[in-house]
Structures are given as structure tokens and as C-alpha cells.
UniProtKB/TrEMBL annotation, chains A, B:
Keywords carried by this UniProt record: Amino-acid biosynthesis, Aminotransferase, Branched-chain amino acid biosynthesis, Pyridoxal phosphate, Transferase
Stored Pfam families: Aminotran_4
UniProt-recorded Gene Ontology molecular function terms: L-isoleucine-2-oxoglutarate transaminase activity; L-leucine-2-oxoglutarate transaminase activity; L-valine-2-oxoglutarate transaminase activity
Cofactor: pyridoxal 5'-phosphate
Gene3D superfamilies: 3.30.470.10, D-amino Acid Aminotransferase, subunit A, domain 2
Catalysed reaction equations from the record: L-isoleucine + 2-oxoglutarate = (S)-3-methyl-2-oxopentanoate + L-glutamate; L-leucine + 2-oxoglutarate = 4-methyl-2-oxopentanoate + L-glutamate; L-valine + 2-oxoglutarate = 3-methyl-2-oxobutanoate + L-glutamate
InterPro entries to which the protein is assigned, alphabetical: Aminotrans_IV, Aminotrans_IV_CS, Aminotransferase-like, B_amino_transII, BCAT-like_C, BCAT-like_N
EC number(s) from the headed UniProt entry: 2.6.1.42
EC class: transferase
UniProt name for this protein: Branched-chain-amino-acid aminotransferase
One GO cellular component, as annotated: mitochondrion
Domain of life of the native organism: Eukaryota
Source species of the chain: Heliocybe sulcata
């Protein structure tokens, strides 16, 4: 059994701060009242295997997030004992007190990651240290008990190795990984949860688009607001998502697949900042007079999730030059990446000028998905559409180049900056 | 056993809309695909009593929300079957799939209510129809399956009657009731939960302040923002609370008990709107030149929870006149209630002018709690305090009059506008 060796980092929480977890929140000490508590320690894991294993559905039959693997990993935090030894056990229900914080006040954090098989048939993760760092920040933002995310990463690698038979051996498919931490304080007083449950579940994914990439439609929405300055939009918290369900239904009723979240800062279309698309980061490609292209995504101002795919796209775009193309399919095209404010007025102007070449959403599950149509309402003028040109195969050239490049790095078919990480 | 009779309202959900629940969201139909499903029906309740009953702690030993009664009530919504028959059973853990929406995306709704014993020793609720209407709106806001809240109220009355021995027979004490609805869709796709679990748990409360009312301190905070126009601050959602835990810790580190949530709309203290205090609505009392008092609370602009206690305070204040005093202790004082924007600059000015007579927070758990000190930071001038005058007994005259009046109505010692409702 592939169990990580004893932690080089030690395994104690002193004064409530995991002395090893770089940057762990010293304020978390008020959980612990000076007690020396156990830290999360991958080397203490125990494994109870399922008596019988599930049949694995054909990748074509998989619906995202509906099928879970045979096992899950759990560890609990108790304010008097610290983190329990992690436990791998058959996938099954959690048992929780009805008064638990996770139901009542929602201090719930998750990450979305994927495991891939490389050409040697070995499992790989993609830039997992970025997920770990984001999870550390998210845990701190909702005042959950901290833990050493390096230990969590060892546990994730263990689970991926254990569930290797579930990783689809098909390009564009993957095993989706959902590390989750929830508050389990069994009391109704409104305060930070001093109990927690950390768990890892895994779900095999077929190709996101069964019949190849198809552009999606977006409806610009600003009366419902996803995130705001000083809020939690820049963290990966469960509570950022439920408020989007009702606006998403409204968009669907009007014939759009996802919401384009706008943030109203002023009057008119100029006052509507573009933030995210559904649960994805948003990019546009705009042609320049010099033959190059501007690729623009909104800046991380606190209302934008710092997505891994967003960061990977920006890195690849910035590394690209015709002399040294990080995106070989666009070898002859100078690309200029920008993190800058994008208003609905900008989108309309680029479109009217014939310069809006592409729009796409990016995220872990989908990687890259092109946008074909963006609806918006202008005061007193009803619903209008920005229509983007259609591209053969669904993706425009920039979306396609990014998608291909990222997927081949994720699957270990090409090396890039150490982004693809082996599990053993 | 006090079980409500067959529902006069019927018990079917047609096309996903509970045809009876006035105002139920017709858009919830997409859960049901035209199926005829069972609605929540109090008359179908089954009761399994606990084999042994717990000892009831002395009221002085109760910590808010830590002790639960012997039983809980649960009902589940399944997209193919609708609402299950409600089930009363011994209090115990919930069993839920780790992928459930409640952990991952937080479509979780709750209400806070209290049951009291009247002078005849019979249980009473306080304006429960307002909790039901707010819960209906909250459920709709996070796209949970709708239900007839009149049926829920019957179930709440049943539970209170069943757990009557837990209602403390002491003035100022009560049995706290926590109806909760959580999304239980067992899948990771980001969309509305088409499964739900509704439950009711109950917790006996001692006096909120063991040694009499003591004023609390508040720290004005605007870098972390509780609620935003277009957000969910006007709904009773679990997800509104976790983002406040970390700012609350920061305030505690600086020596303040709760956060006074400010909303920055412009520069300086004039640009900082006062919204809520901790998890309470906020009021100030300001003296007028004509001998009366202005009692001011921020308006329901979407960032403010429409609290029952807030509404009850406003109603009592508006009904008050020296000729017909709804607050007899203030018989000779003209009171002018206002729902209007209150800035930090207003608070400072009222204080400097010697007109800031009282500040207090109101909410279901605490009813009314006075504020003794409000800290704020002014650019470049460090932390300052607005200090409120001390009153014998902890409460100022308006806070005291409101607290006494509301509690005596809640406990059925005085009648007012039908606010106190019997359970049988």
C-alpha cells in the first residue's frame, strides 16, 4: 500500500498554530488555549478497503460529479485533541450532529483538482501546490482549524494512487478530486467552528463535452451580485455558490446557459464590470492593429477567484512569443496578456469594431470553454446579444491552443515548468 | 399525542409548485418535470419517542445552543417522490452523502424562533408567521424545493408541544427552535439542489445575560463586508454567517465583543453606512430638541436582515404615544421611529452633541442588548471610541422598555396585536 512515510515536517500543533504550516494563522490559537495538539499527519493514515469494488462506468456514461470512487479519506479536528489520524475507508455517508456549523453557518471550504494518467500509465496532478495554498487561505478566511496543507497533498496523492483504476485512460478525461473541509461544531451559537471534518472524495470524469467543444451562451446579470470587495469571492468557499442558483435559473429561462456576473460600479454599460462566467474565470481575445492579439481577463481585485486554469492561461500567454512559442499553434501571432478591468461597454465596443475575436471561460472541470453569445439588457432597450464568430471545432484559435497545451501538460505528454506532478 | 389533523390545504405538489403555498416559486417546477409529487404534510407525521429522556440542566447552567432536547423532526424531499412524511425521532446525527450540496455549495436556510410558557403553563410562539414567510423567501433565494410553510408551522407547534417539559418555566428564558432546510443533492455539479432535508431541533435557553443585561462593545468594520445590494444579506441563509467569523476574531483581539458592520459608500465617516451589529439589527436613540426621542434603525435595503425583533420594536415604537403608551415606562416621552440611513458620521455627531442616548442590538436570541462603546478607525488617527452613557441595570430607558414589553408579550403575560400564538 502506498502510504506516505513519516512526516519530515513533524506532526504537532503548538498553541493552535501548526508550527510547520508556513503562514498558518496565528489567530487560530484561540481554538486551543495553549494546548499542544496533534497536527494533520499523513504518516498516521489507516486504510480500510472496501469489501467489494464498484464497477466503473464507461467514460461516455459519466455525468460530471455523479459517480464516486470506492473509497474516501476523512480526518477530524477536535479542540482538545487536534487532528485525528487520517482514515481511508469505503465511500459512504457522513454522520453529523444537526446543529453542526456546516449546516447552520456554512464555514465550508473545497478545492477542485484532477488526476490524469501519463503516457507511462502513472497518475499525475496539475500544479497541486496552488490548490493547497488557496485552501490554506480559504480555511483561514472562515476561521476553520488550520492544518499543514503539505500533509493534505500527501493524502491526496495516496488517494489517487489507491483509486488509480478509476482514472480514465482516455485523453481529455480525468479523475476529479474534491478535498473538502467543513465546520462540525455541534452548537448553535454564532461563532467560529472549533471542530472540523476534512475529507477527500473522487469522481471519474468523461470528456466535458461529449460531442466536442460547443460554445456556450452567457447572460450578463448585475442585479444579483456574486461577489463584492471585502466579501469572499476571492476564496474557494462553498458559500459563494448557492446564491448563484436562482440567477442561473433565470438565465436559463431566458435561453442562456450560464450567468456572466457583472459588478455595477457606475451608470450605463461603462459602469458594469465583467467578473466571472458561471463558476469560471472569463477571458476575451481582441485583435490589435499591429497584427497581434490582446487576451484580457479581469484582475484579482477580491471579487475574482484566483483560478489555477486562469493562472496557467496567463502564464502560457506571457511566455509566448513568435520566437519561442509556448502555444505552437499560434507561433506566428504575438499575444499580449492583460489582467485588467473589462466592462460590458468594452465588450460591446470590441464587438462593434469587429475586434472581439473570442470569449471563453476557464476552470478546472472544463479547462476552456468558448462563448458564442453574450446577452445583456440595456436600460429601456430590452435584451440584446453580442454574437461571437463561430469556429470550426467549437474553439477559437486562442481557446484551442490553450486547451490543447494545458491538457497535454496535465496528461504528462509535454513538460512545462514542472506543472505536472507525479503521485509517487 | 398532539398531531395536527389532516391538512385543510391538501398535500400535493403539482408541477413542482406546492399549489397551496401562497407565493411558492413557480420556477421550482424545473425540479419536477411535470410530475405530481407529495407536498409537505403535517398530518402524515409519524412519531418515534426516545426510549429514555435526558435530564434537563438547570437554566443557570445552559449555554446558548449547546443543549438539545430529546427529539427532532425530519422530512426529506426527493425529486421523484416529493416530500416524505415528517418523522419525529430521537435527536441524533444526520447521515448525508459527502458530495451533498449542503457541504459543497451551501444552499442552507434556517430560522430562529422561541417558545415560552404562558401564565397558564401552556406553550406560546411569537409571531411565527413572520418566520415562516421569511423562510419561504430564503428557500426561494437559494432555489431549494418549496414547501407549504403553514404545514411547517404545524410541525413546529407539534414539536414544541412534544418537548414542552424543556421550556424553562422562568421569565426571560425560552425554548429556542431552529427549523433548518439544507440541500442534499448527492452530486458535485454546480447547480440547484433537487434534494433537501428539512429538520427542526430545539434547545433550551437560560437568561441570555446571567448577571443581568450588560452593555456590549462594538468595533466598526468596513474592510470586511457582511452583505451587499444584490447579495443575500436580506435573507436568513447560513452562508451569511461564516464570513463574519474572522472579522469577529479580529474585533475580539482589539477588545470589542462584536462587529458593527459598516458599508462604505463614499469617503470619510459620512461614507460609512451602519448596517448590522454582529448577527443583530441595530438601533440608536437620539434626543430631540422638542423633548422627544428619535429611534433610528437602517432601512431594509437588501443588506439588512428583516428581523422579527426589529419589526416588533418598530411596531411598538410607532404605536406609542403619551396618550396611548404602548411602552408604559416611557408614557411621558414622545418617540419617533425611523427606518433611515445611519452613517458613522451621524453616530459621531450625535455623540459629540450629547444627543446619543442609547444604542442597542436586537435579535431573537438576545431580544435587546445595549451597546456601551463603539470603536472606529479614522484615517490616520488610530482607533477611537464612541462611549455611551451607563444606565443602572444595563439597559437605557428605551432598550429596557422594549425588552420588557416584548418579553411580556412573548410570555403571554400581556396581549399585543395577536403576536403571541398558542401551540394547541
Amino acid at each position: 500500500m502506498a502510504v506516505a512515510g513519516p512526516s519530515a515536517n513533524g506532526n504537532r500543533v503548538v498553541n493552535g498554530v501548526n508550527g510547520i504550516a508556513k503562514g498558518a494563522d496565528p489567530e487560530a490559537t484561540n481554538f486551543f488555549n495553549g494546548e499542544v495538539l496533534a497536527g494533520l499527519n499523513a504518516s498516521k493514515v489507516t486504510i480500510t478497503k472496501a469489501k467489494s469494488l464498484k464497477p466503473i462506468p464507461a467514460v461516455e456514461d459519466l455525468v460530471f460529479g455523479n459517480t464516486m470512487t470506492d473509497h474516501m479519506l476523512v480526518a477530524t479536528f477536535h479542540p482538545e485533541h487536534g487532528w485525528s489520524a487520517p482514515e481511508v475507508k469505503p465511500y459512504g455517508p457522513l454522520e453529523l450532529d444537526p446543529a453542526s456549523s456546516c449546516f447552520q453557518y456554512c464555514p465550508n471550504v473545497f478545492e477542485g483538482m484532477k488526476a490524469y494518467l501519463d503516457p507511462q500509465g502513472e497518475p499525475r496532478l496539475f500544479r497541486p501546490e496552488l490548490n493547497m495554498e488557496r485552501m490554506r487561505r480559504s480555511v483561514e478566511r472562515v476561521a476553520l482549524p488550520p492544518f499543514d496543507t503539505a500533509e493534505l497533498l500527501k493524502l491526496i496523492k495516496l488517494m489517487v494512487t489507491l483509486e488509480k483504476r478509476w482514472i480514465p485512460a482516455k485523453q481529455g478525461c480525468a479523475l476529479y478530486i474534491r478535498p473538502t473541509v467543513i465546520g462540525t461544531r455541534p452548537a448553535l451559537g454564532v461563532s467560529a467552528s472549533d471542530h472540523a471534518l476534512l475529507y477527500i472524495i473522487l469522481s471519474p470524469m468523461g470528456p466535458y463535452f461529449r460531442t466536442g467543444p460547443k460554445p456556450i451562451s452567457l447572460l450578463g446579470v448585475h442585479d444579483a451580485v456574486r461577489a463584492w470587495p471585502g466579501g469572499t469571492g476571492g476564496y474557494k468557499l462553498g458559500l459563494n455558490y448557492a446564491p448563484g442558483f436562482q440567477p442561473q435559473r433565470e438565465a436559463a429561462k431566458k435561453g442562456y446557459m450560464q450567468v456572466l456576473w457583472l459588478f455595477k460600479e457606475g451608470n450605463g454599460l461603462e459602469g458594469l464590470k465583467v467578473t466571472e462566467a458561471g463558476a469560471m474565470n472569463f477571458f476575451v481575445v481582441v485583435s490589435r492593429d499591429d497584427g497581434g492579439m490582446d487576451v484580457i481577463t479581469p484582475p484579482l481585485d477580491g471579487t475574482i477567484l484566483p483560478g489555477l486554469t486562469r493562472d496557467s492561461c496567463l502564464s502560457l500567454l506571457r511566455a509566448h512569443s513568435p520566437a519561442s512559442p509556448s502555444l505552437p499553434a499560434l507561433a506566428s501571432t504575438p499575444l499580449h496578456a492583460h489582467e485588467r478591468t473589462l466592462t460590458l461597454a468594452d465588450l460591446v465596443r470590441y464587438s462593434n469594431e469587429g475586434r472581439l475575436l473570442e470569449a471563453f471561460g476557464v476552470g478546472t472541470a472544463v479547462v476552456v470553454v468558448s462563448v458564442g453569445r453574450i446577452g445583456y439588457e440595456e436600460q429601456g432597450q430590452g435584451l440584446r446579444d453580442i454574437t461571437l464568430r463561430e469556429h470550426e471545432g467549437g474553439h477559437g484559435p486562442v481557446a484551442k491552443a490553450l486547451w490543447e497545451r494545458i491538457v497535454e501538460v496535465q496528461e504528462g505528454r509535454q513538460e512545462w515548468e514542472g506543472w505536472s506532478v507525479k503521485c509517487v
